[in-house]
Amino acid sequence: MAEKAGTKVMMLGNEAIARGAYEAGVKVSAAYPGTPSTEISENLVKYKDDLYCEWSPNEKVAMEVAIGAATHGVRAMASMKHVGVNVASDPLFTISYSGVNGGLVLVAADDPGLYSSQNEQDSRMVARSAMIPVIEPSDSEEARVFTKRAFELSEKYDTPIMVRTTTRLAHSQGVVNLEERNNIEDKPYEKNIQKNVMMPGMAKKRHIFVEERLKKMSEDGYSLDLNKVTYNDTKIGVITSGIPYQYVKEVLPNASILKLGLVHPLPKKLIEEFASKVDTLYIVEELEPVIEEQVKSWGIKCIGKEILTVQGEYSANMLRKAILGQELDLEEAADVPARPPILCPGCPHRSVYSVLKKLKKHAAGDIGCYTLGAVAPLQVVETSVCMGSSISTLHGVEKAKGKDYVKDWVACIGDSTFLHTGVNSLMNMVYNKATGTVIIMDNSTTGMTGHQEHAATGKTLMEEDTFAIDIYNLCKAIGVKNVVEVDAFDIKKLEEVIKEETAKEEVSVIITKSLCALHKDFVPKGKCVVDIDKCKKCGACMVSACPAIHKGPNGEAEIDATMCNGCGLCMQNCPFDAISLIENK
User: Which pLDDT band holds residue 390 (cuts at 50, 70, 90)?
Assistant: First the structure.
């Protein structure tokens, strides 16, 4: 990638952020995969000859790794999705007080529209609370440039800086001008307990520094190159940032625009000057009125969420209707059946849920592909809150309702999520003498975000072999007496194990093992076929809702050979031996 300096290329926003970090001279990057941020690390590791990249077990650890590197004088970055910022908030709020040595950047990827997330929070509000600056690019080239500038500003103002992106920017392409890498010299580490050890006496002094820092940045924002003012027709003025800037330019090409690159702290003097020169001022920002509320608090009249929504993504058509009052004559969307996401053919999670449904068990779910166990027709998963919550939820159910009640429940969690935060919850169950069964659905990858490695796979992000944590022995080591491993597709054995473990009045762990069917190392067993003469049209083979099997014109089972990978679940569920496996040779 480095040899392309001086050329123009098309890049996703995430690729451009990675390129910007590389050009800025970053030496350490840590992350936990989470859509829409995952591709940042996947692209940054392409420059591994010049820097170090890792998948950390969770976002808190990733943030702390980056902090350690920055404290000792190198430029470092942590990247994560918006809910990951919650996990990382503990170190983030305190490093704001400590400040940095080498530049420290947190890339926070928000998800307006909830394309792949459990909430629609606005990371700018977290940054305001943590008292760290926020920079927001509006296209791929700005993603590259602003990321580089973030490191410079981090060092100039002695602060971590958040680069806020969104799904639309992360996954849209734009032209990027590639530049050479800046080989930044490491800054010397100096022992400074007053700055780097946040005990109460030190933190009180640093809080004063933080407030002065934000005030200084707000004043400097008047002439900061990240903020751009364009005066055209002054009847309408718009303050905006990020992706919404693109919609504003399309809908109001003749309006005057203040495009903010630094969205916290706001450049008050610049905003006051701009507002004084336009007749009607609009503020266009996705999600929360972070800019709008501050501007109104200064006594500046403006229009924002009165006509715009705090929910979902914006669009050019939305602005046409809200600002210009244009009712668009658009064709009605085609009336097609809804197609919600489903578990893939051959997914081992489907096998587990099929058995749980048969046994009429309820499941506290977690964040991953397996959350789809909540949708019809399986509908086994009944709760899902955040990473690692399934085990703690089960524990809470038991403490609220008793040992007998919880025997009808299990917690379902993936291997990557278990290592992320589930292990803490399992320790809590053991420590507090719980009763409950945890099913760790081990498909040997971080499946939902595109098959990234984790601490139990034996590979690093740098593609190096490493020690693979043994989840079975880890569970044993923290005091779980009852740990059973079982093939996810051995449904007879799985049913027997679930019955046995849920009947116990102590903590049990069942590890269901089978490689994700989309993993690069997965080898299909073959193809399942239906013997029409034996098929009784009972539908038992379809209870698991595999998308590869459906009813034929006369009600008989039919299997789509292009989708089937021979997992054999339908074959095991058929009571009439009407389905057989043709193995690959």
Answer: very high
Angle at 448 between CA 444 and CA 451, to 5 degrees: 45
Beta-carbon contacts of residue 380 (< 8 Å; ≥ 6 apart)? 353, 356, 357, 361, 362, 363, 373, 374, 412
Which candidate, 563, 96, 114, places its Cα nearest to that of 343? 563
Three-state SS at 436: strand
CA gap 160, 104 in Å, rounded: 5
Q: What is the pLDDT of residues 224-266, one digit of tens each?
A: 999 999 999 999 999 999 999 999 999 999 999 999 999 999 9
CB atoms within 10 A of CB 93: 15
Distance CA 483, CA 475 (A): 7
Instruction: Kindly state the tokens that stand for 65.
Output: 């790794």
DSSP 418: I
Alpha carbon separation from 120 to 33, 109, 313, 449, 476 (Å, rounded): 18, 11, 10, 18, 38
Q: How far apart are CA 199 and CA 386, in angstroms?
A: 30
- What would the two tokens of residue 524 be? 């299909």
pTM over 0.70: yes
